Fold this sequence. Notes:
Blueprint: H1 2-48, H2 52-79, H3 89-93, H4 106-128, H5 135-156, H6 160-182, H7 190-214
Amino acid sequence: MTVVNTLTHGQDSVVSQNNKVQTSGNHRGVMDKTDDVNLEKVNWEKLRYMPRRKLAINCGVLVGFVVVCMGGGGIMGAITADSFGDESEWYRSLEKPSFNPPSFLFGPVWSVLYLLMGIAAFAVWTKTGFTKRPLPLIVFFIQLVLNFLWVLIFGIAKDLGAAFVEIMFLWVMICITIVIFHTVKDRAWTHLLLLPYLAWVTFASVLNFSLWDLNKK
C-alpha cells in the first residue's frame, strides 16, 4: 500500500506540474496576444493624436517625394516622347533583340517604380530627415539624377554606347542606395521597395547593351 500510495502521489504531482506548465504557457500566449493588440492600439493612437501640423508636414513631404520621382520621370518622358516607342522613326529603325518588350509597357512600369521610390524615400526621411543623417537621401537623389540623365543620353543624344556606360553607374548607385536604406533603423524594409527598380534597371541594362551591340554600324 505504501508503494501504491507513493506512486499515486508521484503521478498526481507530475499531473499537477504539467497543468501548471500548460497554464503558464497559455497565460504567456494570452499576454503575447494582448501585447500585440496593445502595440497596434498605441500605434493607432499615435497616428490619431498626431499634431495636425506634423501630420500635414508628413503628408506634404510624402507628396513631394512622389512628385519629384514621378514628375521628373514624366518630364523626361515628355522631352523624349519622339525618341522612344513606335512613334520614333529612329527607334523603329533600330535592330532589336528578341526580348525587346513592347513600347506601351515602359510607361506603366516606370510609373509604378517611381511611386515605390518616392514612398521608400519618404519612409527613410521620417527617420533621418534631411540633416540628421543625410547620406541615405543624398545617395538616393544621386541615383535619381543618373536615372533622368540616362533618358537624355539614350533618347536625345541617341548614343547607345554612352547610355550603356551611364546605366551601369546607375545600377551601382541603386545597389548602394538599397544597402544604405537597409541600415536605417526601423526602416530596413524600405529596401524591398527598391528591388523591383533594381530588377528593371538590370533588364534595361541588358537591353541597352544588346541594342548597342546590334546597331554598332
